[in-house]
Amino acid sequence: MNHVQEFRDAGGRLLAYKIGTAWPAGLQAYSRDADFVQVLSWNYGRGKKLQAHVHREVPRTAGLTQEAIVVLHGRARADLYNDRRAVIAQSEVAQGECMVFLAGGHGYEILEDDTRILEIKNGPFPGVEADKEKF
Q1: Phi/psi of residue 128, each to 5°?
Q2: 33-82, pLDDT tens digit by residue?
Q3: Nearest-angstrom CA–CA distance, 10 and 14
Q4: Are 17 and 5 in contact (CB under 8 A)?
């Protein structure tokens, strides 16, 4: 089974993708170079060494917030919305899975007690009023 599930709007635009727990060996990139949130998985055996490095300061411009969630414990449901704020898909995100939100809208429902999720997004954060339009 493919471990990546894509969610697209009616026009074919990629809104989100979910990464399952069956990762391929080695380094796997999921994001496109132009995405503001870059997501990769590591699947190596004991003793693998990754060369030390620093990241150069490179000017970057992000026009919108993209985010990823990783479910550490429990389950949640992600609702995906198109630009007209209509639900176009729902996806359960289980422990060990990651979901990346690139475009459109999204909302969540927690499905189990003690659900713990990490949310990762590009910054800097301009504050709720400037960043989010809730509906």
Answers
A1: -60, -45
A2: 999 999 999 999 999 999 999 999 999 999 899 999 999 999 999 999 99
A3: 10
A4: yes
Buried b / exposed e along 16-44 (16+ C-beta atoms within 10 A): bbbbeeeeeeeeeebbeeeebbebeeeee
The reply to whether CATH 2.30.30 applies to domain 4-131 is no
Model confidence over 9-18: pLDDT tens digits? 999 999 999 9
Spatial separation of the C-alpha atoms in residues 9 and 89, rounded to whole Å: 9
pTM: 0.91
Domain boundaries, the chain: 4-131
Closest CA to 5 of 21, 23, 22, 17: 17
Within 10 angstroms of residue 73's Cβ, the number of other Cβ atoms is: 11
